[in-house]
Write a structure and sequence with these properties.
The structure is a homodimer of 253-residue chains.
Chain A lengths: L6 E7 L1 H4 L7 H12 L2 E8 L3 H12 L4 E5 L10 H9 L3 E3 L1 H8 L10 H5 L2 E3 L3 E5 L3 E7 L2 E4 L3 H12 L9 E7 L3 H14 L4 E8 L5 E9 L2 H17 L11
Parallel strand pairs in A: 1-2, 1-3, 3-8
Antiparallel strand pairs in A: 4-5, 6-7, 7-8, 9-11, 10-11
């Protein structure tokens, strides 16, 4: 099912994610928010703190999707190279932004406290709009369709909430789940037929475990029309009963 | 710091990850295992259950990295399209594998139980090697440099452990962390100079919170030579003391 809704890509930038030292939770969090806004996340990519990679991936994805959200690499240390890379990708100077400098300055007692390292956080691609940071002041920024945010989850979330209302959403994909103990292998053929007969609804099947360790499978119907989801969900429930199962209302995990 | 170590890319395949409904934990888990084996994870990409995307991304990354690990899309339902896509990417037939069929058959009472949906899990790219699945039997597979594994974390982990000893690792990147309460902005300039003077060691700086909510920053030294890491870590600790902090031995979060 494809539609005309806005699309998005998340770039998680940082060696510490690729080494496994830090676990990325930002992409899953943004994914949920985008889904709720009717923006279709098409890709998440985790890439290293490597200038050539960041510049080329940025230019690839910003031409391809409506919105790009990046996470990480905008702090004050030498390994925070995202802003400089965004400048290079857009072919604009990387320079001190006076608005950002004023915000940072208000954090400190004197100009001397605005060390080169701290000033790095106010050095942005020319033409950027600032993204407010209510947690620790140093702003994110937006240039073109690219939204550059911090990697620390609490700060990223606050930054995202600050821009959310400016994003244009599309039709929201609703979902309706039918959970049961029936294994996928049993219902797979009937489910394929159900999908074929209902091309306007996306039907997914997700096996997993309940917190108590017991098996359960969730059939998830997705689409913009609640009435159609209900119809297809009723057919899915009937199919589970046919195979000896009992569909439940429990939320999918 | 680049080296001659083997490289890797993880492809997480599934609409349910991009919608935010399911949170990916597989990539972080594999990342840690690869780091411990001296394999450099260069990229993780989350992509949808979309044939054109899967085929083109697979062909892009398998030419670029030593190892590709995929997660998801090898179950018995219509939305499990990974194996068919891998066949298309490699230009080989997608056909029932008799070894895989025998493994599945042993799970059931009669041939009739081997429904088309279940047989889907034994339908593989021609020329694949099987990856054992000690949890739920249906195997993963390897073709070329691509390792195709299940999305359910417990099964993925079991499959990975089954292939781990066959992967060729490189020099293991060791790490040494120096944690303190000193903010990045204070030490940023000295840290940049420290990195410049020690190009054989990767120095990262990662702010975050302790479980009790207090701020801490971890300076992480990474490299293959433990003695060098210790030297640079001693310099980093001195730098923290210079800025009024106390370096601690607490593990980075």
């Amino acid at each position: 099912m494809t539609d005309q809704a806005p699309t998005a890509c998340i770039l998680v930038i940082g060696n510490e994610i690729l080494s496994g030292r830090t676990k990325d939770t930002n992409s899953g969090w943004i994914a949920e928010r985008l889904t709720a806004m009717g923006i279709r996340l098409r890709e998440t990519r985790v890439i290293p703190d490597d200038e050539a990679v960041i510049v080329s991936v940025l230019n690839e994805v910003r031409a391809k999707y409506t919105y790009i959200f990046t996470s990480g690499g905008i702090g004050p240390t030498h390994d925070d190279i995202t802003a400089e890379c965004v400048s290079k990708a857009f072919g604009v100077p990387w320079e001190v932004d006076e608005r950002a400098r004023a915000i940072l300055r208000s954090n400190y007692q004197s100009d001397a406290d605005l060390t080169p390292a701290r000033l790095r956080m106010a050095t942005l691609p020319r033409g950027s709009e600032l993204i407010p940071n209510p947690i620790s002041k140093a702003p994110g920024f937006k240039i073109g369709n690219v939204y550059v945010m911090a990697g620390v989850p609490r700060i990223l979330q606050a930054m995202f909430e600050g821009i959310a209302s400016s994003l244009k959403g599309g039709p929201i994909l609703l979902s309706h789940s039918v959970v049961s103990d029936v294994a996928e292998g049993k219902i797979g053929d009937d489910l394929a037929a159900l999908q074929k007969a209902n091309a306007d609804v996306d039907i997914g099947s997700y096996p997993g475990q309940r917190p108590d360790g017991t098996f359960r499978n969730a059939i998830v119907m997705r689409g913009p029309d609640r009435a159609r989801l209900k119809e297809v969900a009723a057919a899915a429930a009937a199919l589970i009963r046919k195979h000896g199962g009992t569909p439940t209302d429990e939320p999918p995990l």
